[in-house]
Amino acid sequence: MHIRIINPNTTAAFTRSLARDGAAVAAAGTFVDAVSPSSGTPSIESHVEEAIGALGVLEMIRDSVGVDGFVLACFGDTGLSAAREATGVPVVGMTEAAYFAAAMLAARFSVITLPPRTRIHAERVLRETGLAARCARVRAIDLPVLDMEADPAAALAALLAEARLALAEDDAEAIVLGCAGLTPLVGPMQDALGVPVIDGVTVAVKMAEGLVSLGLRTSKRGSFDTPPVKGLTGPFAGLFRGG
Amino acid sequence: MHIRIINPNTTAAFTRSLARDGAAVAAAGTFVDAVSPSSGTPSIESHVEEAIGALGVLEMIRDSVGVDGFVLACFGDTGLSAAREATGVPVVGMTEAAYFAAAMLAARFSVITLPPRTRIHAERVLRETGLAARCARVRAIDLPVLDMEADPAAALAALLAEARLALAEDDAEAIVLGCAGLTPLVGPMQDALGVPVIDGVTVAVKMAEGLVSLGLRTSKRGSFDTPPVKGLTGPFAGLFRGG
Amino acid sequence: MHIRIINPNTTAAFTRSLARDGAAVAAAGTFVDAVSPSSGTPSIESHVEEAIGALGVLEMIRDSVGVDGFVLACFGDTGLSAAREATGVPVVGMTEAAYFAAAMLAARFSVITLPPRTRIHAERVLRETGLAARCARVRAIDLPVLDMEADPAAALAALLAEARLALAEDDAEAIVLGCAGLTPLVGPMQDALGVPVIDGVTVAVKMAEGLVSLGLRTSKRGSFDTPPVKGLTGPFAGLFRGG
Amino acid sequence: MHIRIINPNTTAAFTRSLARDGAAVAAAGTFVDAVSPSSGTPSIESHVEEAIGALGVLEMIRDSVGVDGFVLACFGDTGLSAAREATGVPVVGMTEAAYFAAAMLAARFSVITLPPRTRIHAERVLRETGLAARCARVRAIDLPVLDMEADPAAALAALLAEARLALAEDDAEAIVLGCAGLTPLVGPMQDALGVPVIDGVTVAVKMAEGLVSLGLRTSKRGSFDTPPVKGLTGPFAGLFRGG
Amino acid sequence: MHIRIINPNTTAAFTRSLARDGAAVAAAGTFVDAVSPSSGTPSIESHVEEAIGALGVLEMIRDSVGVDGFVLACFGDTGLSAAREATGVPVVGMTEAAYFAAAMLAARFSVITLPPRTRIHAERVLRETGLAARCARVRAIDLPVLDMEADPAAALAALLAEARLALAEDDAEAIVLGCAGLTPLVGPMQDALGVPVIDGVTVAVKMAEGLVSLGLRTSKRGSFDTPPVKGLTGPFAGLFRGG
Amino acid sequence: MHIRIINPNTTAAFTRSLARDGAAVAAAGTFVDAVSPSSGTPSIESHVEEAIGALGVLEMIRDSVGVDGFVLACFGDTGLSAAREATGVPVVGMTEAAYFAAAMLAARFSVITLPPRTRIHAERVLRETGLAARCARVRAIDLPVLDMEADPAAALAALLAEARLALAEDDAEAIVLGCAGLTPLVGPMQDALGVPVIDGVTVAVKMAEGLVSLGLRTSKRGSFDTPPVKGLTGPFAGLFRGG
């Protein structure tokens, strides 16, 4: 089985981390890799960048052959519905996966995202998944995504400090990490906090693997049916070739 | 005052209709025009095409100088949050505007969109605007957007037939038209049905005009603050130049 | 076009301010005036006074000839549904208009009403418009409505102080003013705060003007159909004369 | 203990029926009577008439001495919040009481109101009580309130026919009667249908009796605190004299 | 009329208190007693104990003859739906009854439960009754249920302190006591706080009495129909004998 | 890794099927078995039987040693919260797992449960998971659970007929099977219908396997913390021995 993680941003180091972290949790017989678009934005921290990233997701789905399931590795799940139209194999967003896992492990969780302006993306997926009432609070640390990649120790310290506030002030029973690329921090954070710490990327890999192993595919009846092919032009020509 | 209607698809005839219909409702002193992206998709009937259209919206905002307010003329309001980040002037989506107007004229309304697979877009905006409980039903006619443009008489007949079902089966008190480009059908439909028929494009023009005339602008605090400028690449290079 | 602002309370100075502030934002060709009932309550700060004010609204609609659209200028929109039954022209409540405008300018807003006991009215309209999730908090300053009219400088200081709390504690991105008569404070508040400050009266005037200019009218099918005329007695005799 | 039923309309025969039906269910030691306003509307079937009826409610509370609890006997609970401000004793609306009782007897109920335009009132109270999800459907029979009073046999037949539809089509497990004055139909309907049939007036009498017997009173902290007394004028002068 | 209070825990002193407090509020002609299961758990402070308590509820319903209505006296209403299947007479949960009463007396209330881990039970019933939006906050004091029984003065002090926080921080207008057995504290708390303090047990007794006196019974159509009798085994053999 | 499926009913043939179907989807290195309680009810089709089944779940958790994750195999997830208190390893309900999977594969799904009276259980979990808005309709076939086991061909025919109604009438894009033991019908149904057909048992096995492989455990902070051990008596003595 081949599960492909799509990193909608263009930062190659990020993509390599995702491939490594995804492969580390794959079952025997599952091949996990990660790809990122040829052009776009180095990180996704705004609605503008979400719009750009969504195109990257579609480009990568178009260019994937023989993949059995996709994981979208951007908190906010940009492009998820479009991706479900563009392919028949399961597509799992890291955000929805993280929320579903949190809901199976705790009655009440807090999210820690970054930077603060992206809280609105986390909240949008809470509404879409119906789990807003289970989320005590969407918190954020004031750190750009790429700085977090550059200095994991600082990221860990900032996340731990914010998570401690979530336990103390929100009565959170679990913590959802609101960004891709944080898998290596899960262990240290769980050890320090004593509550489940949920990384959506690895959870999504396991959920995609599960759906694929059961022979489940994205519904092609109704909302996610393959769209009709039309005269796309410019950089979008060829972006989508139909079923 | 300059209000610009953004048509996120590439069909020029559509853009010309929007300009004509928008200008027809402008107050004295308001100049209304309509633009569409240089490349993209000829109509928006899927999540894939919404993703493409959102980029077109950003391209057109980048290329607009001296505009006082924007109207997004695509049912589903693709790219609306990104547009609000990309500019400080008001941006009004035709879908939200149509729903808000319907809520001020009737206790309960039905939406008629096209083709059927786009109902999910209409429903998404109902949830986002909080007006889902006021919508009796999202209906659809089985007609591609471009066919509707090509044969307005057939579109009128199909919309009237569906609207009559909405009155009879849904107890609808008003009808929201779920597509741009239908402004000329409002009069005939209201005459035939005897209930308010709401076209989001013209309503959005008036709402944008109103916000601008009051000196109101998009909040730049928090969620829609101008995003940081980063190294965008490929077709996206230069798409967003910051505040 | 004639837009009439209905002030449901009996304070004439208030009515004069509304007429002046409404006329100042009207488009060329729009005549705006304001009326208030011959008897009733000098301000509306309770459910009891809302009940009294609703009768005043109906009295003024009965006595209006040749009006193209009404604005209800009382935060809480008392009598709005009854007004929609009593006339075929559009009726816009200042509260719903303020919330709809806020939702088009910011992802998240706070309301500042007065005095504190009226928060329940602001919350009722949030539920009715479906925008409760977009409101971070309904705040209040501890000042009677008529004192605010008497001492605008004190009102401005109190509102600014509370608005600063809304920005700091609620992450509000815009402020909705929860009382009629505050239009002159919008400019100073926006200058001081740097976020949109929304006055429902002027927004409602523009929305009513927009609906009228599009030929839209209140639906007379179903919930807001003209009620049957019955034997009203006492002070209510003649209050409603049917369609 | 003295429980007073307030009939907000002016039809004396209606008031006599309410007194009789209320007294019939009172516990030993509870005195139940019914009053109606000196002027107003003969029945309440619209928002306009609700506004008139609310004033009647306040008039009757002002004129009541030594009453231990009130019941509002109009489906839609017009004036309920104002009544709670105007008195310290418990005030129970027949609509909320009916819904709460239905929720304790069945998982899912349908409401049958009359005439059809009053469904919006029933739905408003469903939202306010939070029980919308428990209501399968708000149905209506096409009969004016006063005709129902005049011809109870026809009313029974129409209600039974509609209730049978509710059982067959809505999977309703109980029926809520959406109008005051229907108490005598409960027995025949329960016999014919085999499910609970709930009359809000008698339920509200028992709930008010229960609250009073426990020494519970309307909260005077916050939303329902006695409003300040101001210069009410015209027919409203003296309507409210404060605590 | 015979109303029976079911205490789902095995602490006999608790059961005696419930019988005493329930009888004290009964109308003339109503006999109130209280029962508890022969085996189970001495108090209910967890989901595990709720599961055990639900079986106790069924055992006591099976063993009751000639009872006209039941009250479940455990905050969280464990076993309520099963009880409604197992009997045709009304069953009122103390939690739902407390919330319904609070909603009739105040616009906004806080709950004080104990110990903190049981907040989730209080919240579950808020969702089920639809009254979550009316509850400002579910608070808890850190005291085991049995300690509260053992030292009422300490319980009173802790509850009063927490209630004062609810008034100051939550703007609560009424307090709901989140545990059975606290009836004697209602008077002192109301005197000290000046707002309604609601004890679900006594409210439920009065609501059950009301439903019974009106001839209302649990619906046997659909969700609460008597279940089919099957081969129950072990300690469950004979637990349920059908209608 | 050892995943144990808990069948809360006592029908051994059912348990054997669950073990077989669960083992068939396990990854290499995962051992799946299934257990059922020594006494209880042969099937769970009512709230009464849910209460009995919940005790069986606790008995089986108490008696399990060395298990890494549990799956509850009863539609309605009886005993799920209690199970999460009673163990530190992940516990996944088949109902929540089915809904989460459906939400990742389709925008809108229908549930088919059996017999009709169990729809209320399916709806309760829809509310708890927040996915009610994604479910078009909860349907049911009129067949007892044990008959379905006895005659799979008849069950398949009935489920297919109902699923075809779900596609035609509900616009369902996927079907959730509302009962354990239906795994063998998934393939034939998917072939016949052309949409995803979701069996919660196998989905839950994969989700539990995923959570365990990631080192995630049930939160022991707050709501699901191990309850204090008390003096349980009778058949419940020893049911729970604490952490």
Can you put this structure into words, describing what you see?
Six copies of one chain form a homohexamer. Chain A is an alpha/beta fold and 243 residues long. Chain A has two domains: 2-93 and 203-236, Rossmann fold (3-Layer(aba) Sandwich); 95-200, Rossmann fold, CATH 3.40.50.12500. In chain A, 45% of the residues lie in helices and 15% in strands. Chain A contains nine helices and eight strands. Chain A has helices spanning 12-24, 47-62, 80-86, 94-105, 119-129, 145-150, 152-170, 183-193, 200-213, and strands spanning 2-6, 31-35, 69-72, 91-93, 109-113, 135-140, 174-178, 197-199. In chain A, strand 5, helix 5 and strand 6 form a beta-alpha-beta unit. In chain A, helix 4 (94-105) crosses helix 9 (200-213) and helix 7 (152-170) crosses helix 8 (183-193). Chain A is globular. The model of chain A has no long low-confidence stretch (mean pLDDT 95). At the A-B interface, helix 2, helix 3 and helix 5 of A face helix 2, helix 3 and helix 5 of B.
Total E-strand runs of chain A:
8
Number of domains of chain A: 2
Mean pLDDT of chain A: 95
Distance between the termini of chain A: 21 Å
CATH fold category name of the largest domain in chain A: Rossmann fold
Give the chain pair forming the largest contact, with residue counts: B-C, 56 and 56 residues
Task: Evaluate the radius of gyration of chain A.
Answer: 17 Å
Overall CATH class of the largest domain in chain A: Alpha Beta
Which percent range describes the beta-strand content of chain A? 5-15%
Number of DSSP helical runs of chain A: 9
Task: Return the string of H and E elements of chain A.
Answer: EHEHEHEHEHEHHEHEH
Uncertain spans of chain A: none
Report the biggest beta sheet of chain A as strand number plus sense, adding barrel if it closes.
Answer: 4 strands, parallel
Record the strand order, biggest sheet of chain A. 2-1-3-4
Assembly annotation: homohexamer
The secondary-structure class of chain A comes to: alpha/beta
Rough shape of chain A? globular
CATH architecture of the largest domain in chain A: 3-Layer(aba) Sandwich
**Helical percentage of chain A:** 40-55%
